[in-house]
Amino acid sequence: MGDRSTIVISGWQSMSYLSDVGNICWFLEPEFTKQVRRLHQSVGNAVTEDRHIVVGTGSTQLFQAALYALSPPDAFEPISVVSAIPYYSSYPSITDYLKSGLYKWAGDAYTLKGDEPYIELVTSPNNPDGSIRQAVVNRDGGTVIHDLAYYWPQYTPITCLADHDLMLFTISKCTGHAGIRIGWALVKDKEVARKMTKFIELNTIGVSKDSQLRAAKILQVVSHSCEQLGYPEDSESFFKYASRLMADRWDRLRDAVSQSGLFSLPEFMPESCNYAGEMTTPHPAFAWLKCEGGIEDCENFLRGYNILTRTGKHFGAQGNYVRVSMLDREETFDMFIERLSNIRL
Ligand code: PMP
Question: What ipTM was reported for this prediction?
Fold first, then answer.
């Protein structure tokens, strides 16, 4: 996209803490709000009508804001936070690192016992295994946080307009701009949005305006490319381009895996994508690689071939699984494929 997403921020800009005093989320930049709504509208992946937008320093801060907002303030015991195995490995540590009196990590959602209140995290598509997920506990007294970081067309077919009560998104996975540290929550309930805003007020007194303005510009360029306004006729939309790269990487990974005969990967079925207007196949941001043939510590085994991965144990699973990033730089990915292809027992 060249210089299309360049912005200039003058020295006198963004000096106040406040951005939009009439809004529940008073540190939310109006231009960022506009571009978030526009992008969801262009992609068709989530409802934004009648939703409050809360901006965060990455969706990591919003996850913590959501736990704060959904936990009963004066309960006798901290509320249980669960997610189905394999879950995103940061959830347990983020939930427990401050030993909060409000909430505590309670592990795999499938093993949650009793009838106490709970908060369930649903990541879809899932990190680490790319599966499409729904809540599994489904009983009274529970609330659900939907982490939709990967619900973008380069990773998965957009099969429906998500309209859950609390949805988290992040520019880290939408375009790859993880260093900008911007995420957003789409929140149905006004009080939940208010409490999440309060958390961010107490935690960081708002979210960098410079980052919001930069994120707004990037999202604007992405929406513009989706709507194909004013670009040369042969230009691809951002998501088509990214989908092509992901498909290519997955093809190469599957070839390497079949050559070695030592590993297996999850299989994904094509589905009709409302955004692409055709059948598309999932190409997740991570590969959930299983070591076959009795190798119990897959992370260690691969380290022996200079391939760094993350053991399944961090995700509540077994050590014969590892998570591999599919989003690294081209040179790193090329090297990974070459090394994996050359493994022979
Ligand atoms: N949720 C999921 C499922 C993720 O995989 C990640 C990043 N690895 C995050 C949230 C964190 O995103 P952010 O950079 O917006 O804090």
Answer: 0.99
Ligand 1 site, residue 129, Cβ cutoff 6 A: no
- Mean pLDDT computed over every residue of the chain: 96
Q: pLDDT digit string (tens) for 88-108?
A: 999 999 999 999 999 999 999
Select the CATH number that applies to the domain covering 238-341 from these four: 1.10.260.40, 3.90.226.10, 3.90.190.20, 3.90.1150.10. 3.90.1150.10
CB of 60 within 6 A of ligand 1: the answer is yes
Which ligand 1 atom sits nearest the alpha carbon of residue 170? 15
Tokens 């907002």 -> residue: 69
Which residue do the tokens 């006004």 mark?
190
* Cα-to-centroid distance, 149 and ligand 1 (Å): 6
pLDDT bucket at 259, cuts 50 / 70 / 90: confident
- CATH, domain 30-227, list 3.40.50.1820, 3.40.190.150, 3.40.50.2300, 3.40.640.10: 3.40.640.10
pLDDT tens-digit map of 134-144:
999 999 999 99
Pairwise CA distance, residues 39 & 219, whole Å: 7
Residue 59 C-alpha to ligand 1 middle, in angstroms? 6
Cβ atoms within 10 Å of 186's Cβ, excluding its own: 26
Q: How far apart are CA 207 and CA 54, in angstroms?
A: 10
Which amino acid appears at position 136 of this protein?
A: V
Atom of ligand 1 nearest to the CA of 171: 15
Please give the radius of gyration of the chain, using alpha carbons only, rounded to the nearest integer: 21
Dist. CA 115–CA 100, nearest whole Å: 21
